[in-house]
Amino acid sequence: MYKATIGLEIHFESKTNSKMFCSCPNEENNSLDEAPNINTCPVCMGHPGTLPVINREAIDKIIKTGLALNCKIAEHTKFDRKNYFYPDLPKGYQISQFDMPICYGGFLDIAMEDGSSKRIRITRIHMEEDTAKSYHNNNGTTLIDFNRSSVPLMELVTEPDIHTGEEARRFAQELQLILKYLDVSNADMEKGQMRCEVNISINTEDDEELGTKVEIKNLNSFKTVEKSIEYETKRQSEALRNGEKIIQETRGWDDNKEATFSQRNKEDAHEYRYFPEPDLPPLTITQERIEKIKCSLPELPNQKRDRFRKEYNLDQKTIEFFVREKEVGVFFEKAVSELLAWYKEAKKTDDIDPGKYFDMIKLCANYIVTDLQSILKNDPELKGIEEVFSFLNSKITPENFGEFIYLIADEKITSKIAKIVLLKMYEQNKDPSQIISDEGLMPITDDSELEKIISQVLTNNPKPVTDYKAGKQNSFAFLIGQTMAASKGKANPQKAAEILKKLLEA
Ligand SMILES: [Zn+2]
After folding, report:
1. What's the 147 CA to ligand 1 centre distance in angstroms?
2. Which domains does the chain have, with CATH numbers?
3. Neighbours of 36 (CB within 10 A)
4. pLDDT per residue as tens digits for the range 367-400
5. How far is the CA of 57 from the centre of ligand 1 (A)?
6. Helix ranges (DSSP H) in 296-397
7. What is the CA(143)–ligand 1 centre distance, in A?
């Protein structure tokens, strides 16, 4: 039985105001549609005689990232030159870190499908600069845009603790989520702000040494990370089974064929001739600086999952939704606090029975996840959940939504009326009480009015009435349905059932 051993190398651009070693704007912060080669200067164009200066904000952000990923932070560190020649690298070398990374020895716990958790150790995260961007044209020419040249870039390397494509995908997804929570990178894989490389080797369970290492590059989505690993695991296992030797090489991913292909083998591997960057002083990171950054860390996804479980008692799937869609989670929490305020105000008490408390919270979560989402999905002008919820805030405020849930929880409106009210709230940007009174959607609280409606229903449906009296229980449900329809959903179903029973048995 063959087993895959996988390590990841993940690059992500830092969201700083300026580039790593000069004061040019960092395009990671701006739209990518900007004209090429406008954010450049002699430093990031690699002109001779220019000197780099370390970007303090970029160092703060990598420390923040390292702390969130349980890394140790180096007190003394330095930059090194990684020498290689490529048109997108104007200096002929990249300023990177070789043997003294800023962050080292961390880990990230990822949640698996079955609810178990798996720890992936992080070897290091170091700071470097991005290269320029090449555009290869169909006519054989290549254009280079230097806007990206020298944008601060972090590189994270894991220990070979990963064994399946799914684990690798979950690690990369959780990392992306953390980077977003920290606001250190937009980490959009499609835009190349986050890039994954996979190192994979195959051996048998009882092999003491790891198999030959194959590198997979240019993976531009989480799905391709997972699929390329599954493909390579299968390809290499089959080769070994057939007695073939695995070649140490770099492979790319072909999205159309859903297969990896050989790009270059070990003989073409670069010799980078690393040496300490002579133009930059060694960097000392003080304990005070680290402590200050530690204090600025926000609540992280795993902490939020724990808190949502304890505080709101929600199911796993709903929690995951609110953690992943951070803005929606914020909306939910604000709405809950409004809802509780409405309830306390109405009941003139600060004590809410725990059963009622969790029921109301669950109701609030459900209305966001189902009803609200379906309204948003049907709006053709909105794309993507995050855009949707920032837009939503301007249409339905958490205050109005909290009140809306209170009205349902306290049986002021039926669930049928609730659907109408919610849609009108969205369309008209008004609070629910206003809509209920404007549209005449007040529930029927007057028993005699309800009796009148039910008597009419009975007159109109003689057959179901006879059937019910002959013992057919189904007819009762039918008559309730008719009553709800006749009241346009404004009758309280329990009250209606009471009165209907009374009238039928009279
Ligand atoms: Zn510059």
Report:
1. 8
2. 2-295 (no CATH), 301-438 (no CATH), 447-505 (1.10.10.410)
3. 15
4. 999 888 888 777 777 666 656 666 666 688 999 9
5. 16
6. 301-312, 316-324, 326-347, 354-366, 373-377, 385-395
7. 19
